[in-house]
Amino acid sequence: MAMLWPYYSRTPMNALLAHSVRWGIGDEQTRQLLSAYDDGKVFAGQAWDGIFNELREGVTSAPSSERTGISHGNSTLIWICTGIAFRLIDHLGICFDSQRYMGSVTLFDEDTEIRHRLFWSCYFWDKLTSLYLGRSPSLQQSPASPPQRILDDSAEDELWTPYGLTYANGGQYPPTPSHSTSSFIQICRLTVIFNEILIHMYDPTNHNSDTEMHSCLVKEEASLNSWWAELPSFLKMDISDLARYAPPSHIVIQNLLYYCFRILFYRPMLSRRSSPEFGHLEPNPNHLRERVSSATAIIAIFDLYHRTFGESHCMISVAYCVLHQVIIKRPVGWSSAHALARASRINPVIRSALKLVMEAINDLGVERTMPFEPQPVTGTPPSTSTRYPLQSQAFTSWND
Predict the structure, then answer these.
(1) Keyword DNA-binding on this protein (predicted)?
(2) Quick check: 54 pLDDT over 90?
(3) Cα–Cα distance measured from residue 255 to residue 231, given in angstroms and rounded to the nearest whole number
(4) How many folded domains does the chain comprise?
């Protein structure tokens, strides 16, 4: 990569290695290799040095700072890093459609394709970070933004195989097309819908009026339903007819996020009371059914994911969706509860969320139904425990 690829940079490579340490350190052979690099901490240090050297010199390449704080679960660090990354892509003009707004630099088709993918990757990550931390999203789509279009779809039919898994009785994960291009396009479309939900229902800086929320409900409910109806069958997980093995993890995450977004979408309609401003915002029984059915779907999908890939492959987005089904459906099953507890040890961000859930239960005087306590991760900095508005709204709705 360093010798042949014009986009190579040591900074994002070190950030990627630092981010990967928490997944690889569970393997004995990998852990021995990492011992020469201070158990992988060297990579994070070099990534930070690279970021600030580039900023100090005023010359930077693709944003890499969003990767450096995630593995430690430090919410303050995550928010600062993502802010740097998003401003860098704006500085580099990546927030604009380079095919319509050409600058003085000649861009080849490969350059344009990379810029489009990078913008929408950051747009997606911005929404998830805002969701995890209870902050307002930073990146917004505009008529000048890059289109949701991938010109190079050569990866669509590449076979996808999970790494480092062995199955009993000699079983193997079946050859499965990745469908990575179509999945990426669909998750971008879904994220645009969720951005509207965040802004008009969960804005932590402004009070969303009942009128605004009702308008969002009408518009985005139709958008969510259309998205699901138009989703290709090979990307859609039918919980009434799930396969023996879970599809590629990015397809699982896409389906889990859809149901998680539906839970968050209907939550304000059940937790807010009617007001003189907009009197017909009484709780709708259908909204509760939608939330419970979404939570049921999350349980079914996660159980399949867990059976296929195990606990050690449970990513933050997966654990976050499971967390919301724990809030909606109780008592939670032992398998999901213990998997979530294990995930909290792998993902410090989830550990902070679980702490908020426990605090909310204690505040409400509700008997604990989750047979676990989140355990701290040894050797990582503590994450910030500040309760942000979106988190407190999303995690304290036990009485609905």
Answers:
(1) yes
(2) no
(3) 10
(4) 1
CA–CA gap between residue 313 and residue 253 (Å, rounded): 12
For the cut 80, the answer to whether the pLDDT of residue 177 exceeds it is yes
Fill in the DSSP letter of residue 160: E
**Confidence label for 388 from pLDDT (cuts 50, 70 and 90):** very low
What's the whole-model pTM score? Answer: 0.78
User: Is 227 within a domain?
Assistant: no
Closest listed residue to residue 63, CA positions, set 51, 72, 53, 52: 51
| Residue partners of 88: CB distance under 8 A and separation at least 6 | 60, 63, 65
Q: What's the Cα-to-Cα distance from 220 to each of 145, 185, 192, 312, rounded to whole Å?
A: 21, 18, 10, 35
Residue 257 within a domain: no
Give 228-288 as a DSSP string.
HHHS-GGG---TTS--SS---HHHHHHHHHHHHHHHHHHHHHHHSPPBTTBTT-PPPHHHH
In the chain, the N- to C-terminal Cα span, in Å, equals 53
Q: Nearest-5° angle of CA 141, CA 143, CA 147? A: 75
For 29, the domain range is: 9-149
Put residue 9 in one of left, alpha, beta given phi > 0 → left and psi -120 to 50 → alpha. beta
- Does residue 291 lie within any of the structural domains? no
115 belongs to a structural domain: yes
**Average pLDDT score over residue span 363-382:** 46
User: Which tokens hold the place of 46?
Assistant: 């070099």
CA–chain centroid gap for 126, Å, is 9
112-116 average pLDDT score: 89
Among the ranges given (60-64, 155-159, 247-251, 309-313), the one the predictor scored with the smallest mean pLDDT: 60-64
Rounded to 5°, the CA angle 275-195-154 comes to 155
Question: Residue 377 above 50 pLDDT?
Answer: no
Q: How far is CA 333 from CA 246, 321, 322, 339, 368, in A?
A: 20, 15, 11, 10, 13
Q: What is the mean pLDDT of residues 340-364?
A: 65
Q: CA nearest 258: which of 186, 329, 343, 319?
A: 186
What does the block give as tokens for 170? 């000699």
